[in-house]
Amino acid sequence: MLRERLRTMLFGPQGEPAVWDRADLPPAYAASGAATAQAPIPNGWERHSHGLEQFFSGIPSQAGLSILDLGEINQAKVSFITDLGHRLYSEDFLHALDSEFVRGSTDGQANPQRITEFLDQTLDFPPHHFDGVLAWDTLEYLGRPLLAKVVERLHSILRPQGSLLALFHSDEKAETLPLYSYRIWDARTLFVSPRGSRPPAQSFNNRSIEKLFQDFHSVKFFLTRDHLREVIVRR
């Protein structure tokens, strides 16, 4: 019974994102701050993140907010956000993308029916449902038609003044990009772990990023010392 309950919490019912609320975690998990089985931290590095700091300073301070995470599930993110008293919805966006389309290819990503099916599978939420979205670097791997619809849906499900954090690689000519898993150490620090690579669907410069989020209230870029550009978008 407990195993089934944990499986539902970690992976969500079929076709739905997993949802975490600290009050709903089994006692042993809540006490340890763990949302997945304890495991050694993979190789990686810490990086100060102005974007992450801006993200958490930009959402209201009261507890009980709803945050959507589009990256790979890990206990550090779940623990940090639920410890703040917020509810975390988790959808491994790239896993869902590869389940619906051919990995590393934009084939089918211009098909309106398949786009609708993908949105219904991953972002089927009512308008203004979330106070924040952690998109990480997932948007780089979406073909233009699909990307436009995904950003349109993200705009819809964010509440006014809600924040979205996105990362974009600065190498605009790269044929493949490194994939990362992002763990939140604290409100201004990420632990970044490599997890392979894949080709980007398109390249982005600052102008194209601004155009991508043109329906949002504001787009802010943060200078970094590595190859990842951090962007905070306000609804």
What does this structure look like?
The protein is α/β, with parallel strands linked by helices and 235 residues long. It has helices spanning 2-11, 27-32, 50-58, 75-83, 93-100, 112-122, 144-157, 206-212; strands at residues 18-20, 45-48, 66-69, 87-90, 130-136, 158-169, 177-186, 189-198, 218-222, 228-234. Helix 5 runs antiparallel to helix 6 (112-122). The protein is built from 8 helices and 10 strands. A hairpin with a 2-residue loop joins strand 7 and strand 8. The N and C termini lie far apart (41 Å). The chain has one domain (2-35, 43-234): 3-Layer(aba) Sandwich (Rossmann fold), CATH 3.40.50.150. Strands 1-4-3-5-6-10-9 form a 7-stranded mixed β-sheet, sandwiched between helices. Strands 2-8-7 form a 3-stranded antiparallel β-sheet, with helices on both faces.
Compile the SSE list and pairings.
Blueprint: H1 2-11, E1 18-20, H2 27-32, E2 45-48, H3 50-58, E3 66-69, H4 75-83, E4 87-90, H5 93-100, H6 112-122, E5 130-136, H7 144-157, E6 158-169, E7 177-186, E8 189-198, H8 206-212, E9 218-222, E10 228-234
Parallel strand pairs: 3-4, 3-5, 5-6
Antiparallel strand pairs: 1-4, 2-8, 6-10, 7-8, 9-10
